[in-house]
Design brief:
There is one protein chain. The protein is about 60% helix and about 5% strand. By secondary structure, it is mainly α. Among the domains are: about 35 residues, no CATH class; about 120 residues. Strands 1-2 form a two-stranded antiparallel ribbon. The N and C termini lie far apart (about 60 Å).
Length: about 240
């Protein structure tokens, strides 16, 4: 086990830009990064703060313009970072938008991955629905962006969005395979459900000051599921 120097030539351990411990195991060698120096920690924090500020400002401008109709100069004025700094972190405008979509949809993916999956696909579906609507309420600006869609028609669906979609769709697909759907058109049934979910979420995001009924989402989703699913005689909307 030994420390690998960075080549800086300083004598103390703080002279290393990166400290790495190398271990030998039955499976070969692997490395474990050591704790960063205070200067490195500060630089990393500054990079993260800059990225977050730039992405937040990008989201705000996209909502305001209804898409990508904004300039890097406008973005620089909004976020407080210079155009060269923005280009340094994201390369170009397309890279900037792609990074925003990936980062925000990664939040949705993290939320649906936390959903505990049981044996009942109806309860699994309800849990996914709750996670999706909670994501919309926690990320109102980005949710408005999702609903608005891309005016250019260009599909920039990131990997995190596709992974979240697949995970949220599984309970519905399980119900379809089990013959639980009333309608022979699973696509129409699925779109009917998601239209209701988007409506509920969009209303609550757009009118946060309104006194919405505490059980609104549950009552609406249960009513929809009763109309879409064949009953089994167990539980609500089952």
């Amino acid at each position: 086990m030994g420390a690998v120097p960075s080549g800086s030539g300083r004598g103390s351990s703080l002279g290393y830009n990166v400290l790495i411990l190398t271990f030998t195991s039955l499976y070969g060698y692997y490395t474990v990064p050591m704790q960063l120096t205070p200067a490195e920690t500060r630089r990393r924090r500054q990079r993260e703060e800059a990225r977050r500020a730039i992405l937040d400002a990008t989201e705000s401008l996209m909502v305001q313009s209804g898409g990508e109709d904004f300039s890097i100069r406008q973005l620089a004025e909004r976020c407080g970072y210079t155009p060269p700094t923005i280009y340094h972190y994201f390369g170009d405008k397309q890279g900037l938008v792609d990074a925003l979509l990936e980062e925000r949809f990664a939040r949705l993916l993290a939320m649906v991955e936390e959903v505990e999956i049981g044996e009942d696909p109806v309860e699994n579906l309800r849990a996914m629905v709750d996670a999706f609507m909670a994501f919309g309420r926690r990320n109102p600006a980005f949710y408005r962006l999702i609903v608005a869609g891309s005016p250019s028609g260009v599909d920039r669906t990131p990997a995190s969005a596709e992974a979240a979609r697949e995970r949220m769709s599984k309970p519905w697909n399980d119900l379809h395979r089990a013959g639980r759907l009333h309608d022979d058109d699973p696509l129409a049934a699925s779109q009917s459900l998601w239209s209701v979910l988007h409506g509920l979420t969009a209303l609550q995001v757009g009118r946060p000051d309104h006194e919405w009924a505490p059980d609104l989402n549950r009552v609406a989703v249960d009513a929809m599921l009763r109309g879409l699913l064949r009953p089994t005689g167990r539980g609500r909307a089952n």
